[in-house]
Amino acid sequence: MRRISFQILGMVMVLCGLMGVLVGFTDVTSGPLSRSVHEAPAAAAQAERDLRLLLQLGREHMASDIRFTVKLQGEAQAGTRDQIMASAERVAQALGLPAVTAGSVHGSEVFRTEGLIEGLPVQMDWALTQHGGSYIRVMLTAEGEEQGERMIGMQQRVLDELAHAGVDAATNAAVQGYSPREEGAAETIGRLEGDLGRTLAMRMVEDYEDGNTVSRSYEAPALGTFVKSGEQPIHMQLAVHEDSMKKSSRITIGFPVITVEY
Fold first, then answer.
1. CA distance 207 to 252
2. Is residue 262 part of a domain?
3. For residue range 162-189, what is the model confidence (pLDDT) as tens digits?
4. β-strands 108-117, 120-128: how paired?
């Protein structure tokens, strides 16, 4: 089972100006990124199972206009600026992405590239840290179930290339779409909990509600990746936002947490 370090995810806050806002966490501890005791093959198989489950949940609980996001993130080995940039260029070339460009985000230098791989948008940011290391995040997005299936294979390809570059990357994924029913946020998330509880052993550990938005986090040990809030592992997060214009609720499911705006 993989634990995503919040020391690592802290760098997402540096990159959030490029790729979105990190939401849904409170009181989170930091720690080293840990590899599954079953090593890479088992971890890859678990990641694929989790993504397929996420696709299934989107298909069962959301209308047809579904968006999937997978973020692969981790720390790279220490090196000089030129060495880190060269590593970023090698990964970009191996994936078939355009050449990286150097820029600055909140005072940190970032090597960035984005493009299409097999028709799927892919964006890579490789940021230098203040202590001579670096942090990488690759984001894949897909619209609809067909692209989502394609993305499952793509994320393994990206993980393999990152491993060749010495990056032990963890996966964070989310599916988002509108409920096919006209119902409020509280009613929607209650129904989701009931449906998911029949296929996944889960226990709510955090609950947040603000007007027309409800967000809850769960321990669900069958899932392969977790973060820690205090001493509590979190494997899944649900969020529902009631859209008064659409008279429906936007559902977001994150494994282990939601890192897209909901």
1. 15
2. no
3. 999 989 888 999 999 999 888 889 889 9
4. antiparallel
Parent domain of 251: 2-255
135, 8 contact by CB (below 8 A):
yes
Contact 135/2 with Cβ under 8 angstroms? no
- 33 located within any domain: yes
Domain count for the chain: 1
Q: Has residue 54 got a pLDDT over 80?
A: yes
Q: 185-197 and 39-61 helices cross at what angle (nearest 10)?
A: 130
Task: Kindly give, in sequence order, each residue whose CB lies less than 8 Å from that of residue 51, ignoring residues fewer than 6 positions away.
Answer: 70, 151, 152, 155, 171, 173, 255
How far, in whole angstroms, is CA 229 from its chain's centroid? 17
- Alpha carbon distance 189, 67 (integer Å): 19
pTM here? 0.82
Q: Report yes or no on 91 lying in a domain.
A: yes
- Are 120 and 129 in contact by the 8 Å Cβ rule? The answer is no
Asked if residue 260 is part of any domain, the answer here is no
- Asked if residues 109 and 128 have their Cβ atoms less than 8 Å apart, the reply is yes
Task: Give 124-150 pLDDT, tens digit per residue.
Answer: 999 998 877 899 999 999 999 889 999
Q: Higher-confidence residue: 97 or 26? A: 97
